[in-house]
Recover the amino acids of this structure.
């Protein structure tokens, strides 16, 4: 039984911001620390800072022969059963690092030539350079190090989706960067059959880690060595009748060897290989798992776009159904815009006696329409306002939505309503807003939402959102 089923959320994985894990078995996906760099928010920045500070302290303690300190820091990196992510079978009960294997990890790190030579700078580097450090272990270490941030995320998402929180739950070991100590406190967390849960954003999980030793060896180390042999015109170079030259990978492997030990040796001799790999990884991070990938990997459903939009259209216009309308819009748009937009946050305000329901999304798109918005209009956040009625063009109030926009977080908002009486007058009003305030408001009615659902049905993986792009282009004409 999944979280959504256990707590009767009436939402499926496509509309949820967290991984809708099985509450008994482990789900074979992993927390990737590199994925945190996609999320330009304070929460993610805290995670990155904590991971880097923790690992740099471990390295410094090992290099300074402070065995007691480094072993203490590694001792609490148990497998985090409360996330239900990883490789355990049956009821989550992983071995983790624990007291026995944490000593082994300490030994692997302390005897690493790569660490002592300065090649290892961040946690992910150990995937490339140290035998015995695998992606599942990096995932577990990451989860433990950012447990405090994940607890806060869990509390926030539980309140957002209506998941009950139990009080006075032991947090498990929390790393305190200020005191540089492991601490435990009592917190509020969801519980399933007496076992606590930690929710994990689906934006930071992957099937495999961003850093991959096979990829590094094949695409960077071997290619560097191939060019080296070609430039030296060595005995490994084959020359064809047409003048083309090549060096076979099998010959490179035979001469230079394979495995992490040889990867370390080659990288020590030619550190620019690792510099290039890190640079490429910094510049292009793999996007979150798509709906289809999540469905295939963990067995959750793919989105039914027409059913999601039908839930919106089934709401009766007016204040009585406004809460249901806002929830249906959020379920539809959260699925529709993922993985470009994540982390929906509800904002409710009063304006002229009316309750204004808004949803703020975080834009993490690297391609497509929302990436274009981020690059050209600074849209790190995108605000959606929900109005469960048909808007009269002459009374269309856009200034209230504009008040939530800013040059630093984004100048684009979406007003979702049941329709507008005069689309041309509405468009002219939106153009005036652009001219006078520099804010861009897309007004979407019922028919527009249906169009978006149809477009997504035919192009389920696309993030281009050509219909939205055409609506935006009208504001510029």
């Amino acid at each position: 039984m999944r979280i959504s089923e256990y707590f009767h959320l009436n939402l499926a994985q496509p509309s949820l911001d967290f991984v809708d894990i099985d509450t008994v078995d482990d789900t074979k996906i992993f927390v990737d620390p590199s994925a945190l760099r996609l999320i330009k928010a304070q929460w993610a920045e805290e995670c990155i800072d904590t991971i880097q500070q923790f690992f740099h302290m471990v390295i410094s303690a090992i290099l300074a022969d402070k065995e007691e300190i480094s072993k203490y820091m590694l001792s609490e990196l148990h497998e985090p059963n409360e996330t239900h992510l990883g490789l355990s079978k049956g009821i989550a009960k992983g071995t983790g690092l624990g007291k026995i294997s944490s000593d082994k990890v300490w030994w692997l790190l302390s005897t690493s030539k790569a660490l002592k030579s300065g090649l290892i700078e961040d946690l992910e580097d150990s995937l490339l350079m140290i035998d015995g450090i695998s992606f599942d272990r990096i995932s577990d270490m990451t989860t433990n190090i950012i447990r405090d941030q994940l607890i806060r995320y869990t509390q926030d998402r539980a309140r957002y989706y209506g998941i009950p929180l139990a009080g006075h739950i032991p947090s498990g070991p929390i790393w305190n960067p200020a005191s540089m100590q492991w601490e435990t406190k009592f917190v509020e967390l969801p519980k399933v059959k007496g076992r606590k849960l930690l929710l994990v954003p689906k934006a930071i999980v992957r099937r495999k880690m961003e850093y991959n030793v096979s990829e590094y060896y094949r695409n960077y180390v071997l290619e560097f060595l191939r060019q080296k042999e070609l430039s030296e015109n060595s005995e490994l170079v084959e020359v064809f009748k047409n003048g083309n030259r090549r060096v076979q990978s099998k010959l490179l492997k035979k001469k230079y060897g394979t495995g992490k030990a040889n990867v370390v040796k080659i990288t020590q001799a030619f550190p620019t290989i690792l510099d290039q790999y890190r640079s490429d990884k910094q510049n292009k991070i793999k996007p979150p798992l798509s709906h289809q990938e999540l469905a295939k990997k963990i067995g959750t459903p793919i989105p039914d776009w027409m059913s999601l939009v039908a839930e919106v259209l089934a709401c009766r216009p007016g204040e009585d159904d406004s809460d249901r309308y806002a929830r249906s819009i959020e379920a539809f748009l959260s699925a529709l815009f993922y993985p470009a937009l994540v982390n929906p946050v509800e904002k409710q305000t009063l304006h002229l006696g009316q309750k204004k329901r808004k949803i703020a999304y975080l834009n993490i798109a690297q391609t497509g329409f929302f990436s274009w918005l981020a690059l050209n209009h600074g849209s790190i956040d995108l605000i959606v306002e929900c109005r469960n009625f048909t808007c009269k063009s002459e009374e269309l109030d856009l200034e209230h939505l504009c008040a939530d926009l800013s040059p630093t977080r984004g100048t684009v908002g979406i007003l979702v309503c049941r329709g507008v009486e005069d689309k041309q007058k509405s468009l002219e009003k939106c153009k005036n807003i652009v001219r006078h305030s520099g804010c861009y408001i897309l007004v979407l009615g019922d028919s527009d939402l249906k169009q978006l659902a149809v477009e997504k049905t035919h192009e389920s993986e696309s993030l281009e959102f050509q219909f939205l792009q055409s609506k935006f282009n009208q504001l510029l004409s």
Observations:
- The radius of gyration is 26 Å.
- The CA atoms of residues 83 and 395 lie 49 Å apart.
- Residues 42-63 form the longest helix (22 residues).
